[in-house]
């Protein structure tokens, strides 16, 4: 009796395993194989766009239609394929690098992967995005390099490639710090630094993601002389509404913020009292008027080996003056009076966007290297500057800065 039940159980398991094996083997195979080609798409209409075209069509009536496929050549010998499901009657064919006429072959494909006969249509794309960006390209000398600006109305993924002929022999290279500018923003803006203040021939071209290259813009550029401002000439310029400094190691003034130590330990850091209820400020006398190009904030490494926390700057303003009012009139939000001009508002970006107290390697690297910001072009020269903290990473106003550095001339 028991032997019979055991044999029955074994047979049942083997039969079930065979069924499961069949299901796994045939999982991605159509239930019905249809070798009959489906009907073709019809009533194809073309809307030509920049570097692409939108196709609208009528689907064939086949019940096992799976998708519609477009096959076409985007440049000599380079083919592209676009697929649209049976639940839509439109598709966009893209990747064209010119405004020439291009033949598109459209196929309807059934669930057995059998294609219909081709339906051929012609598209004539408008000016591609990379050419529009090249036509709008503006290059201008700035401190230590040059600015790159252009419009990208199609919001294509573009690369702007800068090159320089440092030898004067037509050998075009990318020197240290001269990286490609990648963006799909509608307005692209970047600054290339670390260039000597010497006239050189530069070249600029724009590339899209299909490896189409624009013609080249050649310019002779002399970057403006830039240097790190001499911090030995800086001094505290305390005004009535400046932040109260926490007593750190006997110093009650902001010297630690420009002592040249980028990664200090406690208490060698500028740190204000944490009870502030309005935006806090600190003022520095640079010793002479300067034109500014950029600045860097080095945050303090807090307990837990984290940077994007507590009083380290998140949102802040930079103000300038050459004749500050010593009575220091401010409004209820501690905004500087008329003797001060706002240079700009700045925001620290945490690369990973991770939660408070959680930091990735890229977050830590960015903070360790220092958060750098460009000064808006056309800013006048100033002797006195003021940092106004709008919000720290804790969501309050007190300030913590390990080191503050300015470049210009």
TrEMBL record:
Residues 126-232 form the DUF5126 domain. The lineage of its organism: Bacteria, Pseudomonadati, Bacteroidota, Chitinophagia, Chitinophagales. This is DUF4959 domain-containing protein. Keywords: Signal. Residues 1-16 form the signal peptide. Residues 258-408 form the DUF5000 domain. Residues 21-125 form the DUF4959 domain. It comes from Arachidicoccus soli. The keyword Signal applies.
